[in-house]
From TrEMBL:
Catalyzes the production of GABA. The calmodulin-binding is calcium-dependent and it is proposed that this may, directly or indirectly, form a calcium regulated control of GABA biosynthesis. The modification N6-(pyridoxal phosphate)lysine is found at residue 277. This is Glutamate decarboxylase. GO terms for molecular function: calmodulin binding; glutamate decarboxylase activity. Its EC number is 4.1.1.15.
Length: 496
């Protein structure tokens, strides 16, 4: 259908023109329009505007799935109108979520006897999962302290400064102090020794990360467990561990089955994983699994009566879609262990191709590890003339979204670029990206350095003082100057 103009019910002509054959008026941006428009027009307007978004497949900033098989897309669309919370009406969907919880609990080696059902729940993502796990720890600790007649108003969590922002959210929303173990240059994960030193009587859990967001590195959960067992023995406390396996939970079981990071370790009481990262489902699904029933205080569970049977729930939200749960179930049975392993191996190989290509340029330090989440984090060997932020900016021109960010304390002076390798990032794309990065380097080399110009200007202001600086001071200044420039432009680089 083609409309040359919109006619309102009162037949008032529309007075402004939107360049389209469907409508001649631009709908207001921030107020609901008075009148309706034809569905074709609404579609066209929104579709056109969305063209300016980046291409999700080229968004190398994110772990979150951007491709699924058409059969699964169909299942998703078929269930898009199902509210998950209507368990009474959609008992099969509820059953599928329960199957997913059990499959994942088994994958994480939960100590389940024959006929035992796993304790866990589907969430919107790892963030909700972490809120729930954190609440369970907090409540359990409070109950214990009350029993002991001790104060329970100052709970804390010990974690690395590399934690994902959702932990800071949890801490602020639910009034728990985050005690962060600082990083250092060249060591970008939580040091288990330092973490255990920071544990006190008010520590509700130590949160370890399996797949640091910053460089994909796995933290040493086994060492943490062993040190904490010792400390608990000495002090009489029973400080538990939570593993934030948002990105690594669907990597480690397939690529490193021997690595002990999960419920095989006695102090690991809960684990979260993002179904929408390497669980290979589109955004909107996460999981939290508890070791066993005792680790989830009963008073946090709400009981919904479903088909005469009791359906316990523990979530922050009430209504939500069912599609993602169904899609997770599809992936688990469609791929099986073999399929997941093949995909993860493929991602890892592509990460190595990219890493080798970057190393060949001779211009980068690789800050990710071969063992970990398949990603390549790298920084310029010399960023005194041009920075990682410029590389990121220039790559954007060829469509690539590669974030640049500074490391948390005490490694703030280090800036990295990060490329996450997902299933849909093929070897051809990896090779093309290396080519484009090489081109960017050549181009940047021919540009004058914005940074040195800026620094020279500032130095001249400072009475033209010539101070001899160490390499690290120069690096810090460069990073700070660039960070300021970015902040002035109000540009943010999100990584998730
Ligand atoms: C992505 C991520 C999160 C947050 O997960 P969402 O599923 O996006 O809510 C938390 N922790 C780590 C380590 C992550 O990588």
């Amino acid at each position: 259908m083609v409309l040359s103009k919109i006619v309102t019910r009162t037949d008032t002509p529309i007075d402004c023109t939107f360049a389209s054959r469907y409508v001649q008026t631009a709908p207001p941006k921030y107020k609901m329009p008075e009148n309706s428009i034809p569905k074709e027009a609404a579609y066209q307007i929104i579709n056109d505007e969305l063209m300016l978004d980046g291409n999700p497949r080229l968004n190398l900033a994110s772990f979150v799935t951007t491709w699924m098989e058409p059969e699964c897309d169909k299942l998703i669309m078929d269930s898009i109108n199902k509210n998950y919370v209507d368990m009474d009406e959609y008992p099969v969907t509820t059953e599928l979520q329960n199957r997913c919880v059990n499959m994942i609990a088994n994958l994480f080696n939960a100590p389940l006897g024959d006929g035992d059902t796993a304790v866990g729940v589907g969430t919107v993502g790892s963030s909700e999962a972490i809120m729930l796990a954190g609440l369970a720890f907090k409540r359990k600790w409070q109950n214990k302290m009350k029993q002991l007649g001790k104060p329970c108003d100052k709970p804390n969590i010990v974690t690395g400064a590399n934690v994902q922002v959702c932990w800071e959210k949890f801490a602020r929303y639910f009034e728990v102090e985050l005690k962060e173990v600082k990083l250092s240059e060249g060591y970008y994960v939580m040091d288990p020794e330092k973490a255990v030193e920071m544990v006190d009587e008010n520590t509700i859990c130590v949160a370890a990360i399996l797949g640091s967001t910053l460089n994909g590195e796995f933290e040493d959960v086994k060492r943490l467990n062993d040190l904490l067992v010792e400390k608990n023995k000495e002090t009489g406390w029973d400080t538990p561990i939570h593993v934030d396996a948002a990105s690594g939970g669907f990597i480690a079981p397939f690529l490193y089955p021997e690595l002990e990071w999960d419920f095989r370790l006695p102090l690991v009481k809960s684990i979260n994983v993002s179904g929408h990262k390497y669980g290979l489902v589109y955004a909107g699904i996460g999981w939290v699994i508890w070791r066993n029933k005792e680790d989830l205080p009963e008073e946090l569970i709400f009981h919904i009566n479903y088909l005469g049977a009791d359906q316990p729930t523990f979530t922050l939200n009430f209504s939500k879609g069912s599609s993602q749960i169904i899609a997770q179930y599809y992936q688990l049975i469609r791929l099986g262990f073999e399929g997941y392993r093949n995909i993860m191996e493929n991602c890892q190989e592509n990460a190595l191709v990219l890493k080798a290509g970057l190393e060949k340029t001779g211009r980068f330090n690789i800050v990710s590890k071969d063992e970990g989440v398949p990603l390549v984090a790298f920084s310029l060997k010399d960023n005194s003339r041009h920075t990682e932020f410029e590389v990121s900016d220039m790559l954007r021109r060829s469509g690539w979204i590669v974030p640049a960010y500074t490391m948390p304390p005490n490694a703030q002076h280090v800036t990295v670029l990060r490329v996450v390798i997902r299933e849909d990032f093929s070897r051809t794309l990896a090779e093309r990206l290396v080519n484009d990065i090489e081109k960017v380097l050549v181009e940047l080399d021919s540009f004058p350095s914005k940074i040195t110009q800026k620094l020279i200007a500032t130095e001249e202001e400072h009475h033209k003082a010539v101070v001899k600086k160490t390499a690290i001071e120069v690096q810090r200044e460069v990073t700070n100057a660039w960070r300021k420039m970015i902040a002035d432009r109000k540009k943010t680089n999100g990584v998730c």
